[in-house]
Amino acid sequence: MTRTLLTYGDSNTHGTLPIVTPGIYRRHGPEDRWPTVALAALGAGWTLVEEGLPGRTTGRDDPVMGAYMNGQTGLRIALESHGPVDVLTIMLGTNDLKTRFAPSVARIMGGAAGLLDIALSEPMQTRHGGFKVLLICPPPVVETGPIRDQFWGAEAVGPHLADAYEALAASRGVGFFDAGSVIEVSAQDGIHYEANAHRALGAALAKAIAAL
After folding, report:
1. Which own/partner contact pairs does 61-69 have at CB distance under 8 Å and 24+ positions apart?
2. Domain boundaries defined on the chain
3. What pLDDT was estimated at residue 1?
4. Which residues, in sequence order, are bridge partners of residue 9?
5. Using 50, 70 and 90 to split pLDDT, how confident is the model at 167?
6. What's residue 47's pLDDT?
7. What mean pLDDT is predicted for residues 168-182?
8. Which stretches does DSSP call E strand in 3-128?
9. Residue 16 burial (C-beta neighbours within 10 Å; 0-12, 13-18, 19+)
10. Model-level pTM?
11. Over the Cα atoms of the chain, what is R_g?
12. 62 contact partners, CB below 8 Å, separation of at least 6
C-alpha cells in the first residue's frame, strides 16, 4: 500500500534558492529539494505532496505579504485538499523571526503549538485515518545578505527555538527533528539553504520519518 508524505513549510520546503537579487524567483530542482530527496531515500511505496509557501508563518497574518501567509489557515486547507495523509512534516518558524513580528521564543512556539493542535485534532485525524507528525525546527537565521534588514534581531531568538520545539513535540507526543543539527543556512542570504544542505537534510529526514 502506498503511503503519502505531506511536507508543510515555507520557502525552505518549497526549495527557494539563496537570494542574490530580491524579487527574482529561483527554485532548486527536484533532484536537490529536501522533500524529493527524502522521498527517494524512503524508497518504493511512498508518494509526496510538497506544500511549501515562501513567506509562510506558524500562525500570523503578514501585513506585507498577505493574510494567506498564516500557516494555521494554510494547514487546514492542505489537510482538507490532500489525503489520505500518512505522515505530515511541519517546518515553520523562520519567517516568524522577521522584525515586524517582534519575535520571541514563546510567540513562535505558540504558533507551532497551534499547528500541532490542528494536525492532531479529532476531525483531521479522523479524516485521514490517523497520521504521524514530525515537527522540524529550522536552523537559526544569520543576519546577513540582501534582506537582512527584515530579520533584524533574529540571531537573538533563532538559536533557542530547537529546545522549545523539542519540548513542545514531547508534550504533544509527536516526532521532533532539529534541522540545525545537520545543516546551516547559506552564507549568501542567511535564510535559505544551498543544494548540499537540502540533500543532507532530505537524507536525515527520511531516516526520521521512517522511524516514526
Report:
1. 62/95, 63/100, 64/100, 69/95
2. 3-210
3. 81
4. 52, 91
5. very high
6. 97
7. 98
8. 3-9, 46-52, 87-91
9. buried
10. 0.97
11. 16
12. 55, 69, 70, 95
